[in-house]
Specification:
- The chain is mainly alpha-helical.
- The protein has one domain.
- It is built from two helices and two strands.
- Helix 1 runs antiparallel to helix 2.
- The chain starts with a helix and ends in a 7-residue tail after the last helix.
- The mean pLDDT is 79.
């Protein structure tokens, strides 16, 4: 149980740090576009921000999926 908490804290802190760096880096991006949802659109966001946040979301989701379904290794 403690190992799971350590791993989840590590994954969460690494991805949070990556998100903070991402916000600082993409401030001066000139290429902007909107994200289309089913009924709404977002404001103009930098393309690099959209791609990086999807990468970070996938990284978090992948970490938590692998933690919830551990593979048993044979010794």
């Amino acid at each position: 149980m403690i190992l799971i908490l350590k791993r989840s804290f590590t994954y969460f802190s690494i991805n949070t740090f990556a998100l903070l760096i991402l916000i600082l880096v993409t401030q001066n991006s000139s290429y902007k576009s909107k994200v289309n949802f089913y009924f709404n659109q977002t404001i103009d966001l930098p393309n690099s921000f959209i791609m990086s946040t999807s990468f970070i979301a996938g990284s978090l989701l992948g970490c938590f999926i692998t933690m919830s379904n551990p593979i048993k290794r044979e010794s």
